[in-house]
Amino acid sequence: MGLALLAAVGTADDIPLIQTIGLLSNRFGPLAAHAFERQTGGVEALLWLAERVTGWGRVYVVEALCRLDDPAARPWLLRRACDGDFLNGYFAGNVATVTKLHEALADLDTDSEMVDHVGRLLHEMSDCGGMGLTLAHYPHSATVLEAHSRHVGSLGPTIERYFTVALLTQHLTTKSPEAAGCTAAQQEALRATYLEVLDLEEWTQAARAGLAADDNRMRWLADYRAPQVRLRAFPDRESDAEE
Asked: Looking at the predicted structure, is the pLDDT value of residue 242 above 90?
């Protein structure tokens, strides 16, 4: 009740209190986000909270930032909005749209954090039907996918990068071109570029090291996705689903 009152009539003096309560974001995230949306200085308060919440709380806060569409929030939205949680699918498309992602792709040349985040956005939008905007309905899918595929290979491999690229490759392999928002020719070119990255020796070794360390993402790829995409890192792995 107190937070509801602050959301309706609170002032800038109440921001620290609302932030503290908002950290209990699964229950109080919606009201805290609403309170900040209507206050002067609310964008900065939302960004502070966004850095500290996960799950549903992150959904509420990021959606509020997207509704405000403040230029001051765009750098954070471009690089940090998605934290890898499945629930990111509710807002990934909104983030891509509000930040005008297709116009910010030149920054990928020097911004590895943005490359990784764009990969997360694309991954979420490839598999968020019924939750948010998908690649099939995002008008700039082909442009963003092409830029990401071109830049991610220039970075050193990490488990997260390998996982993201493998899932995007699987989507381009098993779904129709329309599901990726591109033409058949674009789909084939994107798939070939991503596969070339995955087949690089250092990327292959990074994936095998992750599997040897029992990383759950690499284990899942090896068991369920490698047979579909023919990943070089896991050539002889048989799916547990067939056992």
From this structure: no
Average pLDDT over residues 180-191: 97
Residues whose CB falls within 8 Å of the CB of residue 38, separated by 6 or more in sequence, listed in order: 7
Q: Torsions phi, psi of 159, nearest 5?
A: -60, -45
Distance between CA 217 and CA 160 in Å, rounded? 8
Checking phi first, is residue 214 left (phi over 0); if not, alpha (psi -120 to 50) or beta?
Answer: left
Phi and psi, residue 229, nearest 5°: -100, -15
Burial (0-12, 13-18, 19+ Cβ within 10 Å), 95: buried
Amino acid at 121: L
Residue 113 has pLDDT above 70, yes or no: yes
Q: Name the token pair of 186.
A: 């674009």
The count of other CB atoms within 10 Å of the CB of residue 149 is 24
User: What does the block give as tokens for 240?
Assistant: 């547990």
The count of C-alpha atoms lying within 13 angstroms of the C-alpha of 223, restricted to the half-sphere facing its C-beta, is 12
Q: Tell me the DSSP string of 13-43.
A: GGHHHHHHHHTSHHHHHHHHHHHHHTSTTHH
Q: Which of 36-40, 160-164, 193-197, 234-238 has the lowest mean pLDDT?
A: 234-238
Place of tokens 């070089």: 232
Task: With cut-offs at 50, 70 and 90, classify the pLDDT of residue 201.
Answer: very high
- Answer yes or no: is pLDDT of 237 > 80: no
